[in-house]
Design goal:
alpha+beta, single chain, five-stranded mixed beta barrel
Amino acid sequence: YRVPNLTPDEDGIIEALVLPLRDLVIFPHMVTPIFVARQASMLAIQEAHSRTRTVIGLTQRDPEVEDPRPQDFLPIGVEIAVGRLLSMPDGSSSALVQGRRRVEILEFTRLEPVIQVRARVFYEATTADRQTQALMRSVLDLFDRCIQLDRSIPEEAHLFALNIVEPGWLSDMITTAVSFNFEERQALLLMTDPHERLKRINKLLAEEVDVLELEDEIHSRVQNEVDKSQREFYLREQMKAIQTELGEGDIWTRDVNELRQRIEQANLPEQARVTTS
């Protein structure tokens, strides 16, 4: 996206239109499609396009709220660039958006027809001290293990993460790649200290690895049972085929027939014959 970031004043303040996000949390550097159905969101995107400006994506606390007011949004948002709108068959629209940087909402300056806010830009450290570097390595190891166990995460994601040297960017990239729940993603967006975010992600990844390893163990156990059953069934079918080929028939039928022959040859009294039959 070639849309430039909004230029903050000397206090780091920007003023921008708001794109309300119902059930989506966007992070800096993240590129994702969004679906636009509400008129206010459509107007915000159209106005941003006409003025070649970025907007601020604000996530609703409760996705079910149809007409959100200032208190319904998280206090931290992300400046985003919005791509061209595409019309969908159901009448809604879709667009690709790219997160740029976190912002803190200071004031809602307009609510109709499009929400507008004043916000302060967060400038995160681009270097890491020794403790943060150690934390980054731990996070990368756990992330690699997640990728090995979770087929939904592309393998190249680990290589991409290895080349990120900024702690904040690494934490946001992994948060985007791993399917943390909506509430956890909201909490991570609100954490403006990269080191603290990495600590939280390290804990979440450790829990995710435990669950994935347990799922993998259960799957392997079930698969072994299935393979064993299939092998036994295959062997029984082979035995039947061999017995038929040799003219012996089924082994159980053969045993019953042999028992009947012995009864016939034993010259049992009539009462015993009725009982055994």
